[in-house]
């Protein structure tokens, strides 16, 4: 799947199933983390009026500040589930912050 415009494809990071003390944590007790790793990035968004093609509108492409592999924190209700397990689509404006870069 390739995201369009300012959409970002992320893979949700899951909480560990075993505690540091070796206790297995059941699924029902896990809290959902709103953290993921960027897998693919759309081309960006356009500046100016989004509703018309008038000549006085500035339609410059604004590229994303994100990179593939970035760890991102996102809003709870801002994602779109995909058919693939663990992958979400989110608009760049709904990303709250960027963590350390994940090495592959």
For this entry, give a set of tags.
single chain, 104 residues, mainly beta, 10 Kd Chaperonin, Protein Cpn10, Chain O, six-stranded antiparallel beta sheet, two-stranded antiparallel sheet
Kindly state the number of beta strands.
Answer: 8
Q: What structural category characterises the helix and strand content?
A: mainly beta
Strand arrangement, largest sheet?
Answer: 6-7-1-2-5-8
Radius of gyration: 17 Å
Helix content: under 10%
* Unreliable stretches: none
**Morphology call:** elongated
CATH topology type: 10 Kd Chaperonin, Protein Cpn10, Chain O
Task: Sketch the major β-sheet.
Answer: 6 strands, antiparallel
The CATH superfamily is known as: GroES chaperonin
Succession of helices and strands: EEEEEEEE
CATH architecture: Roll
Secondary structure tally, helices: 0
Domain module count: 1
**Arithmetic mean pLDDT:** 76
Termini separation (Å)?
Answer: 20 Å
Task: Determine and state the CATH class.
Answer: Mainly Beta
Percent strand equals 35-45%
Multimeric status of the protein: single chain
